[in-house]
Amino acid sequence: MTEKLTILAALAAFAALFLQVIRLKRSRKEYESQVKAWKLRLELDLKQAKDERDRLLDGLGDAFLIVDSRANILFANSAAQELFRGRALTGRPVREAFLDPRLAEALLLCLETGEPVRSRVVLPQQTSPLGDLETRGNNAWIIDAAQLSDTPDGNPNTRVVIRDVTSEYQLDQIRKDFVANASHELRTPLAIINGYLENLLDDGMIEDTEMAKRFLTVMKKHTDRISRIVEDMLVISRLESGEASAIKIEPFKLRLCVKDVLERLESVVRSQQADVSMHLHDDEITLEGDRFYWTQVLFNLVENALKQNPYKDLKIEVGSSESGDHVLIWVKDSGIGIPSADLPHIFRRFYRVEKHHSQLEVKGTGLGLSIVKRAVEAHHGTISVTSVPGVETKFLMTIPKSPF
Ligand code: ADP
What we know:
Blueprint: H1 2-58, E1 63-67, E2 73-76, H2 78-83, H3 94-97, H4 101-113, E3 117-123, E4 139-147, E5 158-164, H5 166-202, H6 209-240, E6 250-253, H7 254-264, H8 266-272, E7 275-279, E8 286-289, H9 291-308, E9 315-323, E10 326-333, H10 368-378, E11 382-388, E12 392-400
Parallel strand pairs: 7-9
Antiparallel strand pairs: 1-2, 1-5, 3-4, 4-5, 6-8, 9-10, 10-12, 11-12
């Protein structure tokens, strides 16, 4: 009897154990499937967070990289990929990915010191990050590098922002050149005036009225030149100010504008016995824009033709035609022309053809054509020049019929 009871108790214990094992197995399965679900969820959340981060960093507009402590690129946003077009970035050492070591310098300094570094780098066209697509000559970049917060292994990553500041750099350069050139151009007449003044005062030459008169005449010529340079600089600066008020927009007749110019230059035309003619495709053609600037444009171009060719038999033509939505206006002359090597530079401020100015002359300011170009561009037009010396030099302007 006791034996039976013992067997029954053992069977019951075994059954209980069996049930327990089954229960345990079931809950392990449940646990495993739950872990799997958590894992999936975690992966999804991670992916979403990563997508969100990429979207945010892509939206930056500037190239953005994350590099590890050994300067290997871990992440590059779409602007960075665009910038270093065609070159793989992720997984590569920075020194290899950047064409010019100067671009990596700020980042490497940040890695070395752990301090944030911000610097501007100017690169020649050949080593621009844009590679062959760079067409702007010297290009400038701001590199901004800073360590991200510490990682568990104590090797924090570093973020780098690369911003293209080429247009700001080039504008700055133009401004600096302008100031340097303007100072140079003003210094010469000022030194001459000063020299004459010293002579007049020191050597008692002021007593010699004839001599004093000659000196004063030369000084007057040079003060006139200074005034012309300053006036021209003011016109350029007004045109470049970009203010809407710099240009007055009203319709005016091109014929009247040309007539104005020819009247103002009449005495020079007569004394040089030049043959100046007007060939407008339509006598009533009306332009929309600032008549003051258009008069100055045509004046500078016709005056240049006269100035560069002070001999008889010079032919100058001011003409116009139409092409679709544009009006073409030209000034051409049959004079000495512009050597082809000078043509690409002719619209630069203070640029003068060396050959035309072998002696020190008090003639142009070298700003006339810059003013012409700025004024034409302010009317949304373009200007080009072609020249066959001794045959035909032609300045051609193309302006939209309705520029504003
Ligand atoms: P400038 O005040 O010296 O005339 P511009 O900017 O008007 O300055 O012209 C720049 C240079 O271009 C001139 O110095 C001259 O050498 C050359 N140039 C301009 N127009 C003509 C032209 N019609 N024929 C020959 N050379 C010209």
